[in-house]
Amino acid sequence: MNRHTSFDLPICLAVEEDAFFHSDDIIKRYIPDIIGQKALVVSEEFLIGIYKEKITDISHDFGDAEILAMESASFDEAVAIAKKVCMEDIRVIIGIGGGRVLDTAKYAAHISKAVYICMPTSLSNDSLASPFSVLETTGRARRTLTCNIPTAIIVDTNMIINAPIGQTLSGIGDTIAKDTALYDWKLAARRSSSQTEDFAYALSRMSFDSVYHCDQKDMQSRVFIRILSRALVMGGLAMEIAGSSRPCSGSEHLFAHAIEEYYPEIKVSHGIAVALGTIPACIFQGRDASGLIGAFRTYGLDVSPESYGITKDMFADMWEKARTVRPGRITILDEVKPDRVQLDEIYSRMTEGV
Fold it and tell me: What is the C-alpha to C-alpha distance for residues 22 and 39, in angstroms, rounded to an integer?
């Protein structure tokens, strides 16, 4: 029996209006020791252009920290940033951006043992608080790497409200996908010597429930932004406590990985891809998917594969490849092998929104 008995938690989770303009005050409240230490702000060129005022203000708050525009969300880029941090005696890395920036900055902080402050400009998936970074390695290949979770997470509700709505929808998709992931985790425990970690399971379930049963459906309200922020953080913490991604990743994620690895021409975000995988996964698990479809419809999340350029043939092939992309990960795909007739029927139902 392999139990994960040691884990970290963020010291600070602040979800506040205009939080980026008083990030130093937030840090002083929770971890005053790092104020005055040499810091590096990591972001992307286009974000630095869009949010110049806020990012410059954050740089001033942390001792006129250098602002670095990263070139790619890759392992090599993270290592290069970590080398700079070590060589220049930088103690704090501040990641400002979406998933690409946050994963790169998080892994650079892990390698260099710097304090990592996570400041998302969108809420597109639960990687902001997870103990993993997904980085490009060679060519189109990407790899999930274990790392430390952020020391502090600061969410500016104004930033998220003004972010592209598709990114928020992606975060909703990644959160609702926990429903099928948790089923697969329990299935894997029954079929092997592993166990589910009760607290991690409960946190992931709470993450799902908080969005699925949310009374506030306005995605641009501050109330909903707080709920989604905390839901995504709970998902990340569930993975940290479990010592794996199992509380948040099942057959629906295998489907998303199949798209990423075999169909790179399909431009769909991670959160939307796993949302698309959740409906078939729920059906394969022998459960009624109408509740999930209803939730997606409520938030305006399009579950039609066709609308993302996925044809019926692609859809069937993606599910065939899904069972091979992560060998050893037990999911419902190890028990059920849907035939082409069933996959075509599911595709048609999803395309019609039924």
Answer: 16
Three-state DSSP class for residue 209: helix
* Amino acid type, 326: R
| Domain 12-163, classified CATH 3.40.50.1970, yes or no | yes
Q: What's the CA gap between 218 and 277, in Å, rounded?
A: 24
Pick the CATH number of 168-352 from 3.40.50.2020, 3.40.50.720, 1.10.10.10, 1.20.1090.10: 1.20.1090.10
Token pair of 148, please? Answer: 């430390």
Q: How far apart are CA 227 and CA 101, in angstroms?
A: 23
Contact status, residue 117 vs residue 79, Cβ threshold 8 Å: no
Alpha-carbon separation of residue 2 from 196, 237, 283, 334, 350 (angstroms)? 10, 19, 31, 22, 39
H or E stretch including 43? strand 39-43
Q: Where are the domains of the chain?
A: 12-163, 168-352
pLDDT in tens, 139-195: 767 888 999 999 999 999 999 999 999 999 999 999 999 999 999 999 999 998 888
